Amino acid sequence: QIENILDLWSGSLKTNILTELKNWKLNLIQHHKLQMRQEKEKHAAQVKQLQNEMENLKELLHTYEISISRKDEVITNLTEALEKQKEKVELMRKFTLWRIQHIKTKQEEYANSIADRHFRTALMKKVWAAWRSSSEIKWKDKVARACQLRAEDVCVHLTNDYEAKIAELTAALEQRKAEILRLHSERDQYEDTMKKAFMRGVCALNLEAMTMFQSK
C-alpha cells in the first residue's frame, strides 16, 4: 500500500513538474516574443528617427548651399561695388588734377593780365606825366603824385583780389584732397568690414557644422 501511495505521489509530482515546466516554457516564449516585438518597435522608431534626422540634415545642407550661394552673390556684388567705387575715386582724382591744372592756368592768365594792366597803367601814367609836364609845369609834381597814388591803390586792390582768389582756390584744392583721402579711408574701411563680415559668416558656418557633427 505504501508502495502504491509512493507511486501515485511520484506520478502526480512528475505531472505537476512537467505542467510547471510547460508553463515556464510558454511564459518564457511569450516573454521572448514580447521582448522581440518591443525591440522591433524600438528599432523601427530609431530607424524613423534616423530617417527624420537625415531629412533634416538634407534640408539643412540645402539651406547651407543656398546661404553659401547667396554669400557668393553678396561677395560678387561687394566686389563690383568696390571696383565701381575705385573707378569713381580714380575719376575724381583725375578730375581734381585737371581742375588744379586748369586753376593754375587761370592763375597764370590772370597774373599776365594784371601785369599787362599794370604796364599799361604805368605807361599811361608816364604819357600823362609827360603831357602834363609839357603843358603845365607847375602841376607836374602834384599830378605825378596823384597818379602814383592812384596806380599804387589800383595795384594794391588788384593784388588783394589776386591773393584772395589764390587763397580761395588753395582752399578748394585742400578740400578736394581731403575728400580724396576720405574716400580712400571709406574704401579701406568698407573692405575691412566686408572681410570681417565674410570671416564671421565662415566662422558661423564652421561652428554650425561642428555642432552638427558633435550632436550626431
Question: What features would you describe in this structure?
Answer:
It is a single chain. With 216 residues, this protein is mainly α. 97% of the residues lie in helices and 0% in strands. It has two helices and no strands. The mean pLDDT is 84.
Which descriptors apply to this entry?
cell cycle; mainly alpha; Centrosomal protein POC5; repeat; POC5; rod-shaped; 2 helices
* Shape descriptor: rod-shaped
What is the helix tally? 2
Q: Helix coverage percent of residues?
A: over 70%
Terminus-to-terminus distance: 76 Å
- Taken in chain order, the helices and strands follow as HH
Overall mean pLDDT: 84
Give the DSSP E fraction (strand runs of 2 or more residues): under 5%
User: Got a strand count?
Assistant: 0
Are there runs of 5+ residues with pLDDT below 50, and where? none
Structural class: mainly alpha
Sheet with the most strands? Answer: none
User: What Rg, in angstroms, do the CA atoms define?
Assistant: 53 Å
Which SSEs are present, and which pair or pack?
Blueprint: H1 2-135, H2 140-215
Helix pairs in contact: 1-2
Q: What is this entry, summarized?
A:
With 216 residues, the chain is mainly alpha-helical. The chain has helices at residues 2-135, 140-215.
